[in-house]
Structure formats: structure tokens, C-alpha cells
Design brief:
The chain is an alpha/beta fold. The chain is 53% helix and 11% strand. The strands form 2 sheets. Strands 1-4-5-6-7 form a 5-stranded mixed beta sheet, sandwiched between helices. A two-stranded antiparallel sheet has the order 2-3. The protein is elongated. The relative contact order is 0.07.
């Protein structure tokens, strides 16, 4: 469930295209150039937002939504003249005829329901079977598919192309053709007919296809919807610098400055230079910080190395001193024990008498017994007794 895409959620390019096309001047311009060859048949002031969402019953039995990218109704003198829809495609779709047919069917269905509701409101409902009165007409619903890919569309453009129809049935199966516009492949003379910001858009995709994007800076078309075009350029070029300088460009536009590609290109280049400068400064900061860290690390390593050497030298000196002290101490103690033995052996004194004569402490008396045992020495007092007995 967590990996499934939510229905109806548009991709970023779709949303960006829609932001620009939703303006009536841009929408009317697209229709006038692509349908009427540049004649101003559709006026921006006659356009009203049409229903972008249509509902349909899925095979599973539940109701679902299908959302158009942009939908406008052309209303003239209070009467609807036509319903126009725009569908944006960044990639080829192999079900586009069915999708567009669904959009148009939904539009026609709403028209019928609108006329039926109007008849009921006026108290002149048509017969149940007829639904509408003779002479009541619905109006055209036209959907344009704007394809922004830089490779030719290789998907179907008709319903028949999606089918494997036996030849003897072809005439019996109603066909449906989409109105496909490959924006990147529009001729220069067609692009020149656009009067809105869509001229900049069409020029960009043609330049992308031909690998001449740098030439866009020579485009002299004035931008009207600056923020939307900046977002458009950022999304389709993948260049985040358009986002960086967007606020500055929009602000200059609000102050009355004419914005065109050359102005934006200048700001983007300024952004590059500023970015290089900031990068150098940041690099220096990071270099200094890294140098300090490396210096501390090397210093600690060197310090530990020298410290261990000094420590070992000092330790050996201390060890020798302690060893000598301990050795001398042990020698003195052992000398006392040997004197005790000699006194018992040569004078015939008992061991306690000899210890008293040599002023042995309690600790020395106990230590003597341990020393005898450890050194496997024989008690001289016992030896003296054995000799006497002999």
C-alpha cells in the first residue's frame, strides 16, 4: 500500500505546465495558433474554467475520478460555444486515445445533463425516452494533447491503432483521433505566431531538441507571467539557479522592468559567479577546518609516540631505582637472617636467644620462617642439636 501512487496526483512537470496554461491569455493563444492557425477566434475574456474532474464507474464497481490538466469553456453572449481541454505529456502514452475519448465523453455527458436540468427548471421536460427536445444541441468538446518530449511520438493517435481489427470489421468500429501537438517539433513560423508566454515555452523545447538551448538568451519575447516561466525553466532544465534568482526577477518585473530570456540569463550567470565565490569561501573555511583537524590528529599521534618513548625511558629509570632499592633491601634482610644462623651455629644460643641478641622484630621473626622455607635452608638450631646428640 505504501508504495502505490495516489490516484490523481500529477507529476511536477504536469503541475508546472498547468500553472502557465491556466492563464486565459496563454490558453486562448494556444488554441488560436494550434487550431485556428493564428487567427484570434478565441478571446481570453470569453473563457471560464470548466470542470476538470470527471467521474466514471470502474470495472470493480466503485466510482473514480479522472482529472484533466486544464479545461476551459468558451462562453459567448451567455451561450457555450465550445469546451476546450489541454492534456500535457512529457512522455509517450500508449492509451492516449482512450483517455481523451473518456474526457470528451464526460464533457458531452455533462452537456446533456445541463440541458435536461434547464428543461426541468423551465417546466418543459422532454419525454423520458427522448431526454432532449428536437433541435436542442450540445456543443463541441475538443482536447489538445501537448507533447513536450524531444523524441518523436511513437504511440497511437487513433483508437483503431490500439486495436488488432479484422479488416471486414474496421468500417463497423467507430474510430477516435487525438489532436496531438509535438511542441518540440513545431516549425519556427508556427512558434512565431504565439503572442503569449507559450512562445517562450515552444522555443525552449525546440531548442532542447536541436541542442541549442544557449541560443534561448537571444529570444526577445517579453515575459508576462514571470514567476510561472521561471518555475517552468527550473523544472524542465533541472537548473536550480532559476529558483535562486526567481525572487529577484519577479521583483524587478513588478517594478516595471521588461523581463526576457536575456535578462534572466544574465541573472543566472551572476548566480554562477556568486556561487563560485561562495564555493571558494566555503572551500577555504572547510579547508582550514580540515587542516586543524588533521593537525590535531597528527599532533596527538606524534605526542603519543614521543610520550611513549619518554615514558618508557622514565619507566626504566624508575624501575631500576626501585629494583635497586628493593634488591638492596632484600640483601640487608637476607644478611640479617644469615647472621642469625651463624650466631646459633657458633655460640650454641637457642634461636629465640639469638633473635633477642640481634633485636629481631616480630615481622623479622615471621619473615625468617618464610625465608627458610622459600630458600630450603636448614634450621641451624636443629643442626646444632643433631651434632650434640652425635
Amino acid at each position: 500500500m505504501g508504495n502505490r501512487k495516489r490516484r490523481g496526483v500529477k507529476s511536477r512537470p504536469d503541475r508546472v505546465e498547468k500553472l502557465l496554461e491556466d492563464y486565459n491569455d496563454v490558453f486562448a493563444d494556444i488554441i488560436n495558433v494550434l487550431v485556428y492557425d493564428g487567427r484570434e477566434e478565441v478571446r481570453p475574456e470569453d473563457l471560464v474554467d470548466g470542470p476538470a474532474v470527471s467521474h466514471y464507474k470502474a470495472a470493480e464497481g466503485d466510482w473514480r475520478e479522472r482529472t484533466r490538466d486544464v479545461c476551459k469553456e468558451d462562453v459567448r453572449n451567455g451561450a457555450t460555444f465550445a469546451v476546450w481541454g489541454l492534456e500535457n505529456q512529457s512522455k509517450v502514452s500508449f492509451v492516449m486515445p482512450v483517455r481523451c475519448m473518456g474526457y470528451d465523453y464526460a464533457a458531452y455527458g455533462r452537456m446533456v445533463e445541463h440541458l435536461k436540468a434547464k428543461n426541468k427548471e423551465e417546466g418543459r421536460e422532454a419525454d423520458y425516452a427522448a431526454e432532449l427536445h428536437p433541435g436542442q444541441h450540445i456543443w463541441p468538446a475538443i482536447t489538445l494533447v501537448l507533447y513536450f518530449g524531444t523524441k518523436p511520438w511513437d504511440g497511437p493517435v487513433t483508437l483503431h491503432e490500439m486495436m488488432d481489427i479484422p479488416e471486414d470489421l474496421r468500417a463497423e468500429v467507430p474510430d477516435y483521433r487525438i489532436h496531438l501537438v509535438e511542441v518540440a517539433f513545431l516549425p519556427e513560423e508556427t512558434i512565431a505566431k504565439f503572442k503569449s508566454d507559450f512562445q517562450v515555452v515552444a522555443s525552449l523545447f525546440r531548442a532542447k531538441r536541436l541542442g541549442k538551448e544557449r541560443e534561448m538568451k537571444y529570444n526577445t519575447k517579453k515575459w508576462d507571467h514571470v514567476a510561472e516561466l521561471m518555475e517552468f525553466f527550473r523544472t524542465f532544465t533541472g537548473d536550480a539557479r532559476y529558483e535562486t534568482c526567481k525572487a529577484k526577477i519577479v521583483e524587478r518585473s513588478r517594478k516595471g522592468e521588461v523581463i526576457m530570456c536575456s535578462v534572466v540569463d544574465t541573472f543566472v550567470e551572476m548566480g554562477v559567479q556568486e556561487g563560485i565565490k561562495q564555493g571558494i569561501e566555503k572551500g577555504m573555511e572547510q579547508g582550514i577546518e580540515m587542516g586543524i583537524k588533521q593537525g590535531v590528529k597528527k599532533g596527538m599521534e606524534k605526542g603519543m609516540e614521543e610520550g611513549m618513548e619518554k615514558g618508557m625511558e622514565k619507566g626504566m629509570e624508575k624501575g631500576m631505582e626501585k629494583g635497586m632499592e628493593k634488591g638492596m633491601g632484600q640483601g640487608l634482610i637476607e644478611g640479617r637472617y644469615r647472621s642469625l644462623q651463624s650466631l646459633v651455629k657458633n655460640t650454641g644460643m637457642s634461636l629465640p636467644e639469638a633473635m633477642d641478641a640481634l633485636s629481631f622484630s616480630k615481622k623479622e621473626r615471621k619473615g625468617y620462617k618464610k625465608w627458610l622455607k622459600a630458600n630450603k635452608e636448614k634450621d641451624p638450631e636443629k643442626r646444632a642439636g643433631m651434632k650434640k646428640a652425635g
